[in-house]
Each structure stands twice: as C-alpha cells, then as structure tokens.
Amino acid sequence: MANERTAGRMSGVIGRGRLAAVLVALALVGCGGAAGATRAQGTPAEGASPVAAAPTLPLLRALADGSEPFAAHVDAARGVLFVEVFTDPSGEDPRIDANGEVRVAERLCGAALATRLERVVSDLHVRFESGDEEAVVCEGDTCRHHAAMEYDSDGVLVFRAGTDGAPVLDRVVRTEGGPVSEEWRASAQRWADERVAALSSGACAP
Q: No. of H helices and E strands in the chain?
C-alpha cells in the first residue's frame, strides 16, 4: 500500500539496534529502573512542584538522532495515543473501509509502543535531514511536521508535563498530507479530534 511503502522507506534510517534499545529502555521505565531512562517517571524533590518544560527543536533533534532516549519522554503507565487517517489506493491494507480510507486510533504500550516510536523517530529524522528549517516546528506543547512526499502524512506530536516537568509524549496524530482535498482533510481532522477526546484518559493495562 502506498502509505505503508512510504513509511517503510523512511524507517530504513533506523537500525534494529535502536529499536532494541527503545524496547529495553521502555521496559526499564515501566519497572522503575535504569537511571536516565526514568526522567519522565521521576518523583520531584520533596517540596518541589514539577515545572512543565515545553518540547523544543533541540529536543526533537536529539530524539531523531538517538542522542536522547525516547523512553525518557514516555510514560510507560499511560503509553501513547496514536491516531492516523490516510487513503489506500492499492486497497491492500486490511483495515481499509468502504471509502478507501484507513482510520486507526489506539493507545500503544510496551513492545507495540517501542515499534511505533521507531516510526516517529524516522519521521523526525527525515524532516531534519531535509535541510528545510521549517520542516518541524514547535509551539507550546505541540510540534508539527508536514508530509515529506506523496502519500506521506502530516504529523502532530503533543506533549504534556511528566511528574518531574520533563516533556512526555502524550499523543501522535497523522493525517494524509498529499494531494487530498480540503474537505477530506477537514473530515479527517474532525474524526481525529473526536478519537483524541474519547481516548485521552486511557492507560496501559497493569
């Protein structure tokens, strides 16, 4: 399918070693181990209040090149909500609906989350390597990137403050950003917003 083929080409920039590292780090975060992999799960010093730190481009660059572990910016107990809407002209995706679209909304945890984070890292890496200074922009708690090519998707990464104030990835919303109509784009965004509202309070199974 075209959208998945595009994602596959992008994911080639991430090695198996990095995915394995994310899996191990996420597991350690969930168990309360590994210094440096628990920042998002840390407890503030006694008498201190967490101060929200907004995501920044330097942080996203570090996540993209692997110098900053993504596990430090994930709440293993809540996971991350992923919402995606795209068309599948090939009709190969088993999730395709009668309109030729794939609409997915799910909260991912554990190994499934680590695998999907690999794609997030790949998306960011491609944008930063493009040389376009506006390929990724951050404002407040939200960072955005546009589709890099046909059948690729616009991406929105929304963060929230972890227990120690460090930005923690809350959700990722991807909607097709290629040659689609404004009407389709608006419909996809409405559906994505509805799913975010419905699933925003979810958590991972203990």
A: 5, 6
State the DSSP string of 29-88: HHHT-STTS-GGG--PPTT---------HHHHHHHHHTSS-GGGG--TTT-EEEEEEEE-
Q: What tokens were used for 178?
A: 């290629």
Q: In what order do the strands lie in the sheet with 167-176?
A: 101-108, 80-87, 167-176, 153-161, 142-145, 136-139
What is the C-alpha separation between 20 and 202, in angstroms, rounded? Answer: 26
pTM for the whole structure: 0.74
d(CA 152, CA 145): 11
Per-residue pLDDT band for 165 (boundaries 50, 70, 90) equals confident
60-90: pLDDT as tens digits: 999 999 999 999 999 999 999 999 999 888 8
- Sign for the CA dihedral angle at 157, 73, 55, 14 comes to negative
Count of beta carbons in the 10 Å neighbourhood of residue 145: 25
Angle subtended by helix axes 2-11 and 110-129, to nearest 10: 80
From the number of C-beta atoms within 10 Å of its C-beta (0-12, 13-18, 19+), residue 29 rates as buried
